[in-house]
Amino acid sequence: MIGLFGGAFDPPHNGHVALLGAARETFGLDEVIVVVAAAPGHKAVALPAETRLALARAAFPGETILLDEHPRTIDTMRAHPEWQDALFLVGADEFADFLEWKEPDELLRRVRLGVATRPGYPRERLDAVLGALDRPERVVFFDLAPQEVASRELRFALDRGEDVHAEVPPAVWALIEREGLYGRPRSYTGAA
């Protein structure tokens, strides 16, 4: 079974890595394709697409990493019929807003959703979304240990000059430091 894990990855963090690992273990995924949104239709990004692509490659070594030029998930799925019936991985927060996505019911005709839940997340929010879908049986839930990290908070912390190396994979932190991303001082001088 193919898993698809999409996002801005601005920056990718340990929560992203944990979600992918839990999904791989829960569903026995044969392959995971990490899809980096070049220009997400639902949020602004801090870094250019190619830089976020490099960060995703650092966060998910050994996985297939693709840059997606489509701003909406349904458009990506239309462009990739070979991904029909793949398991598209999202967190509970994203699923809570799923009805606001472009053509959510059409998306569920093309892929199944694997939704990572964590202890304490209000199940009634998820059940309300499920109840409004044409094909709720195409949504499966899996457990994820609590992760107290979000890309937005990491960007704010980095902007304040804070060290967030414990919240991101080591290779991501090395890239942030070396290239001076998110306002960090650049640590790599390189030969001129």
Can you put this structure into words, describing what you see?
With 192 residues, the protein is an alpha/beta fold. The chain has one domain (2-148): Rossmann fold (3-Layer(aba) Sandwich), CATH 3.40.50.620. It has helices at 14-27, 49-59, 73-79, 92-96, 104-110, 123-132, 151-159, 170-179, and strands spanning 2-7, 31-37, 64-68, 87-91, 112-117, 139-143. The chain has a six-stranded parallel beta sheet. Helix 2 packs antiparallel against helix 8 (170-179) and helix 3 (73-79) packs parallel to helix 5. It is globular, with a radius of gyration of 17 Å. The model has no long low-confidence stretch (mean pLDDT 93).
Q: What percent of residues are in strands?
A: 15-25%
- In DSSP terms (H or I, runs of 4 or more residues), the helix count works out at 8
CATH H-level name... which superfamily? Answer: HUPs
Low-confidence stretches: none
* Helicity level: 25-40%
Number of domains: 1
Secondary structure tally: strands: 6
C-alpha geometry = globular
Give the ordered list of helices and strands.
Answer: EHEHEHEHHEHEHH
Radius of gyration: 17 Å
Largest beta sheet, briefly? Answer: 6 strands, parallel
- CATH architecture grouping: 3-Layer(aba) Sandwich
Name of the level-1 CATH class: Alpha Beta
- Please identify the structural class as seen in this structure: alpha/beta
Strand order of the largest sheet: 3-2-1-4-5-6
* Rounded average pLDDT: 93
Whole-Å distance between the termini?
47 Å
